[in-house]
Amino acid sequence: MVDAPDTQTPPNLSAVALELLAMLTARYPETFRHEHAPPKPLAIGISAHLVQDLALDPAIVHAAMRLYTRRRAYQQALARPGALRVDLAGQPVEPVAPEHQTSVRTRPAARPGQGTPTPADGAAALTWEEVQTITQTLATAPAGEARTMKLTLVGRPGKIETRQQCVVFRMQGKAPGSLPKGLPPMPTTAPLTWVVMVAARQWSRIKDAISAHPEDSIIVEGYPVMQGTQPVLMAQSCTSVALQRAQREDQKPPVGEQGAEPTA
What we know:
Elements: H1 11-27, H2 46-54, H3 58-69, H4 72-79, E1 84-86, E2 92-95, H5 98-105, H6 128-138, E3 151-155, E4 161-163, E5 166-172, E6 193-199, H7 200-204, H8 207-212, E7 218-227, E8 230-240, H9 241-251
């Protein structure tokens, strides 16, 4: 079922995963297809359904889904225009997301006889399709604890509204030029637009500097939350690049005192 060896799955786990795929193919023939039949993109969250409905080991399900979704034919099915994901009954449930299709189309083409391409270090690049499977597997165990969670935005605010003791504006993110090797490709969706909330007292310290210097950038650090589908940053500190620079200059000792020798 696999075009190329999976260097990231232990051999013993791969054998069990292949047995599971054979069982799934027999049990859900409209969803999991034999090699001679064109595969169908799987619904997001299908791994969790398999774990729950069949009482399966999440690690084995993840390994099986990795083997199944790395097939060249499956990748081609994902990239096909108008491709639809199917549930365990083989019924279409949703279109394949554009970023998942882009992830497939931007992967290097395999050389004849080499199957799925891999980077020079032998580890295949992660795809967004696999990220969905991994996320479902991780959800079966308690999450770790982030003892500190802060987000920093640097740039210029949009239109500013003041309500009671709060200043509110929006800032849209900008995608980086590149990501570290090994991460999935950059999504094609637009960067997040944040609604930023700053206490009026904090904002009063920088508003004049921002207004007087159009080239200056604010630096907002705070706690990120989701309000429905809207990302919101609740500011804990707010300054600007120019103000930080001025503070550093003020902290330097006067020129005449630098390196001065003590007097007798």
